[in-house]
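Exam prep: given the inputs below (a chain plus zinc ion), describe the expected output before reading on.
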Amino acid sequence: MGCAPPFCRHSALDLGPDDPAYLRLFLADGSIPHIARCVREGFATVVDGSMPSFTCPNNMSIITGTPTSRHGISGNYYLDTRTWQPVVMTGPELLRGDSIVTRFAEAGAKVVSVTAKDKLRRQLSKGLDVSKGQVSFSSEFAEQCTLEHNGIENVLQWLGMDKPGMYSMELSLFVLEAGIRLLKERRPDLLYLSLTDWVQHKWAPNEEGARTFYRKLDDCVGRLTALDATVALTADHGMNDKSNAAGEPNVIWLQDILDARFGKGETTVICPITDAFVAHHGALGGFVRVWTRGKTSARQIIDHIAAIDGIEMALDRQTACRLFDMPPDREGDVAVVARHDVCIGGSESAHDLSGLKGHRLRTHGGVSEAKVPFIVNRPLNDAYKMVAASSTLKSYQVFDFAINGTL
Ligand SMILES: [Zn+2]
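Solution:
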């Protein structure tokens, strides 16, 4: 498969032969000319995202410029071992430190952030004072915006778009159209646009729905770059097909396996991909955490599951946190990573897969989905050429590159 030289240059170092699969395909066949121009005239490579390769950890890494170990959001859920209850990690109170957007706003910059999912909006706008011209809203709740909470109101009328469905490509396109309009009308210094991965969960790169979305995405990128903005593109994670030849998901029901060996209630498996948008992945991902009540050791769990076909890694807390730069106080006793074609669930009875409706399961969370594109539409200055050449870039450096790194 052909691809633009900057991708080829770095991809030899990468784990996955295909990521970023969508961009590779559409760059090769000419479907995304505006992004191709960014690759050609600016800077483009493939970098490591944060682990686990889920939405919240990576958006928070990007928006804070720090690894998961620093900002603390290592999934959508963790287990509070004092109460043995799963705790949603999407509240702003669990985010450690401030976002780049908030710091810029405090220093007097005009900032705008638009997300597809509202859970992200709440964390991204932590500490952001929207009474002074800043804007922060989600397309999920676009019709509920108020000046008091979002810095903008009557969004549907202003943009001339209907409220997008929760499971639709319009949920992302709405974000982009709002961003373009805000850039034109308010000329913010910093604009953060975060999309949702419904399209990639639903369609493989070679399916028409994916191409339709990327063409629309590319058109938006073209309009953003035409507004004389430095445009940086990256992703929170990749995506892999995790179904067998018959189209059924390759699932390891880890809670059932552990219950059968160690007894019910002894261990708790948390699937940190779980959120309000489960219909397209059934809360199944490539990374889960296991906590033990104490009678069973992490070592016993690892010994029991490490050799299961489809499990790529089963790591104790210390090793997982060291390897993936994650916060120990929110890590399980054992972190489990699936192979690229497999996902891990809790108990079979606890997952609702009806939302897949005949689709192959495509999902993410593991190391095999942690390679992401990193594209800036302008050439790097000499200092950042050095940074790019001398270190292993992370996706959370994207703001730094966009703000400080271009000519
Ligand atoms: Zn997803």
